[in-house]
Write a structure and sequence with these properties.
This protein is 52% helix and 11% strand. By secondary structure, it is of the alpha/beta class. Bound molecules: (4-amino-2-methylpyrimidin-5-yl)methyl dihydrogen phosphate. The site of (4-amino-2-methylpyrimidin-5-yl)methyl dihydrogen phosphate has 19 residues, from strand 1, strand 2 and helix 11. It holds the Pfam family TENA_THI-4.
Length: 598
Amino acid sequence: MPPYLITTTTTITVKQLVGRTAVTIAITIEKMSGLLSSSPVPLEPRKAPHVLTIAGSDSGGGAGIQADLKTIEAFGCYGTSVLTGLTAQNTKGVQAVHAVPSDFVIQQLQSVIEDEPPIAVKLGMLTSASTIRALASYLPKLDCTTVLDPVIISTSGHHLLPEDAVEALYDLFPYVTFLTPNIPEAIRLSRTNTKETELKGLADMLQLAKDTQLKTGAKTVLLKGGHGKVSREDVLQYAGQYEIVWEEGDEEADTVDVLTEYRSTLGLKVEKDLVVDILVTGEEVVALFVGRKVDSSSTHGTGCTLSSAIASAYATRRKKDVPAGKDIEVFKRAISYTQSAIASAFSFGHGHGPLNHAHLTARRALPPPTKHNPHPFLTHLIQSNLPLWKSYVRHPFVVQLGNGTLPRECFEHYIKQDYHYLKHYARAHALGAYKANTLAEIQAFSEIALHVARESEMHVAYCAQFGISRAELAATAESSPCAAYARYVVDIGTQGDILDVYMAVASCLVGYGEVGLWLKKQVEEGNAVLEGNLYKKWMEDYCGAEFLAAVNRGIENLERRVAEDPPSPEKLARLTAIWHECVRLESRFWDMGLNLIH
Ligand SMILES: Cc1ncc(COP(=O)(O)O)c(N)n1
């Protein structure tokens, strides 16, 4: 589409975007009919599932009961807390621990339970052997689902559990439904003599998870793989053998070249290592949860958050007929919540920062740009419908153009229609200038509109290479797919606000950047040809450094705009819908070329 962008030096800005927030309103028929009938049926009082945490206090707010209660709340449950100890702690470390006497721990527990029994109990820092033993004799009476995060050493390296208390844990394990150790904790609790550094890949981790379950006697073990490094190939080896649950969109995330390439031009390390959490129930591997490693120092309280998330996801689970240890959905929701809380963490303190427990709610829905992902808005847009995005950027028209097999008349039809499209694309930018409310923004949109107008002249010359005269171009009737796309963009510009305009013009820019990069890679790998290709000039333009620099500027300004003024969830949903529609219409534009649609 826009060769004019090749020389574009103007910035494109777009406002904020992101996150996935879903609000479900459920009204039961009974209640409805109750409301409507002449003798109303009394409504059941609304109840939030009760989740209890038995853990220590972190004065810094990132771990312990503070993290637990925030997590429980985020899952829509009601949290109660029994404190086992107080820590004087911040993000830099633990300065002191003060144990709560074990009989007072039990007294707190009795007070809570006598009033309202919990659906699930999370256990964290248990502080002393006497408290652990007291809990081991109390828990069987409670008869409810328990999640134990065996907190032994803090992220900052402080011993939170004395040696005799670690041994006392074995009295508690038989009453534990879900045990969630990390690799060092699993090595310790399974009493294996392996050192962490001796673990070689996924096979050793699988063995460790099974050993931990066997030696502790906990019903289910979720071995957290955050400390390990696993390659994609290693995971794929187990594809037929175990259920593999990929993090949303991650299976294909590598294919978004435009972001990967841009990150590497910014000098950022593109993290290839995967994190694998292993779920073992009854000595059987149930599932592997695979996600991308998040390069972040905001990890304080990760174990507390995940275990509370499991307790809460269990308390609100939908499939009540599936055995607890095999309900993959529970673990998937808990892991995904924790991963997003790390990825969207904001900076706090001078050490290992806390997670963002409120990422599911309104204004923090979209993660802020981080070192790991400086493009959260675009990542959200692309991954919100990856198959749709691929139908555009890997369209057969593009594939055939790259390997030189695209029939000439298809390209000619496309390029003539593209000329028409440019006119409307320029109008959309003029509308953007009209709607902008700062002079800088007015200038940016006007300059792009000017560029489009000027560059359409270049387009005329470009078309001449294919024997298409200016008169022929002007006389060509607009095809329906071109009209549909162009009118949609201009219509959004007319009825929407400035941010809508940004959105309506973004997929064209980013998509052509992606197509250019992909074609370049195809040429390097021998799947596409440049020399002797009829479309060489077109390919060179879109693979060229100048065009890609314009794409990068556009992405950067879009992200900046969005980070400065985050949209509400409703606005985010609208922006995402505009993006999807433009991507769909871009794909139809290639269809038009390939199938000579008029
Ligand atoms: C009260 C309390 N509970 C648990 C942890 C472990 O959390 P982390 O390993 O992230 O330091 C902690 N530091 N403090």
